[in-house]
Amino acid sequence: MQRNMNNRSELQNEGLTSDPWEQKFKRISRSAWEFSSNSPEESLELASFMGSRALPGDIYALEGGLGAGKTLFSRGFAEGLGIQQPVTSPTFPIIQEYDHEPPLYHMDLYRLSDSDDVIETGAEELWSGSGVTLIEWPDRAEDILPPDCIRIRIQIDGPERRTIRISASTQRMELLEKQLSRKPGGENPGTSAD
């Protein structure tokens, strides 16, 4: 399935399955999709779209080098989730909690060395809660990340161009596809009025 992601209101008013996606978003395998972004605005739109469909307990691992756009993606994601306050990189506090339903936990593990440091922050406890978690620099916690986390890899292709790869286990990607197919605030995946 492919879908054009260039209009925020269109994204929020229609589910993924109501129209085929166009060439910007493509399925690479059963467990990975890729999105070509030509601008920060397009990256924000994708992030907002995903945030608007996030569910309690979702964990997103944001990968990419310095300046790739992880915090920009986090801003768009938070906006889609409905968070009104400004979102900045929590490099120094390491964990920033946004009071919302569900709560958003934005983590930046850049200054940590390894999973032992991550455990000391209490981050692992938040992952098992009912919030939505975004983790920048997840490689610092690779050996303790839950296996069902959704990985978002942002690759720099030019000054404003990015390739955004979304991947997870095949089973988790099937659930994610259902999440993205529903309208914001709509039924949870796996539920039906039928």
Explained architecture:
One of its GO terms (biological process) is tRNA threonylcarbamoyladenosine modification. It is found in: Cytoplasm. Belongs to the TsaE family. It holds the Pfam family TsaE. One of its GO terms (molecular function) is metal ion binding. With 194 residues, this protein is α/β, with parallel strands linked by helices. The protein has a single domain, classed as Rossmann fold, CATH 3.40.50. Helices cover 28% and strands 22% of the residues. An eight-stranded mixed sheet has the order 1-2-8-7-3-6-5-4. A hairpin with a 5-residue loop joins strand 4 and strand 5. Helix 2 packs across helix 3. The longest helix is centred in the first third of the chain and has 12 residues. It is globular, with a radius of gyration of 16 Å. The two termini are 24 Å apart. The N terminus and C terminus are likely disordered.
What can be said about this structure in brief?
With 194 residues, the protein is of the alpha/beta class. It is 28% helix and 22% strand. It has an eight-stranded mixed β-sheet with strand order 1-2-8-7-3-6-5-4.
Detail the topology: elements first, then pairings.
Elements: H1 8-13, E1 25-29, E2 32-37, H2 40-51, E3 59-63, H3 70-81, E4 95-98, E5 104-108, H4 115-121, H5 123-127, E6 132-136, E7 150-156, E8 162-167, H6 170-181
Parallel strand pairs: 3-6, 3-7, 5-6
Antiparallel strand pairs: 1-2, 2-8, 4-5, 7-8
